[in-house]
């Protein structure tokens, strides 16, 4: 079923923001939110793919944002608020991935990985939470990784550590804001068919369902967790991996 055919409640009139929405999984998630009726801000440093389609969509707003910079985050969300009002759905998707052995990982590379993947998630969440608390409603979905559970395959300690932090942060937010109508959950995808896994498609033989995941598989899970239908689910880390990791 195409993501656009899903019918869930709680999106019409809501303001959503997706980080790293220029392409790939983030773009698919943002497009899916627009299809559900949410006014959606596409936050990214890069120009989005197919910008003409976004320019003609009244419920889409492209905003430049460096998630690792607090001033940039504040400015980006201020733009969204001035256009539509406070954000009630946040998808923390922006992140980077590199393969580097521990002994070859410099402190600068370690810090950059955590700054973008983990601190970026913290800054964006921190920025929207006061408005969600005041409104008595909010949905935060953060994109972690199966590597954050297992440590990942070889040579990605900095990435795995950052994603473990993202998923634990999601649980902390859930605990702190549940009483205010805010839910916070995370996804732990593995082997999704994006540029990140280019060249390792042979790994599909290790996936019980027999294929790589697609960005749409991630977007469907995001839509559910961002909807009104998931109001009793918070502090959850949902696996999206076709059975690759069973824990």
Structural account:
- By secondary structure, the protein is α/β, with parallel strands linked by helices.
- It has one domain (3-240): Rossmann fold, CATH 3.40.50.720.
- The chain is built from 7 helices and 7 strands, in the order E-H-E-H-E-H-E-H-E-H-H-E-H-E.
- Strand 4 (89-92), helix 4 (107-135) and strand 5 form a beta-alpha-beta unit.
- The protein is globular, with a radius of gyration of 17 Å.
- The mean pLDDT is 95.
Relevant terms:
247 residues; alpha/beta; Rossmann fold
Outline:
This protein has 247 residues and is an alpha/beta fold. Helices cover 40% and strands 15% of the residues. The protein has helices at 24-35, 51-55, 70-84, 107-135, 147-150, 157-177, 215-226, and strands spanning 15-19, 39-44, 60-64, 89-92, 138-143, 182-189, 237-240.
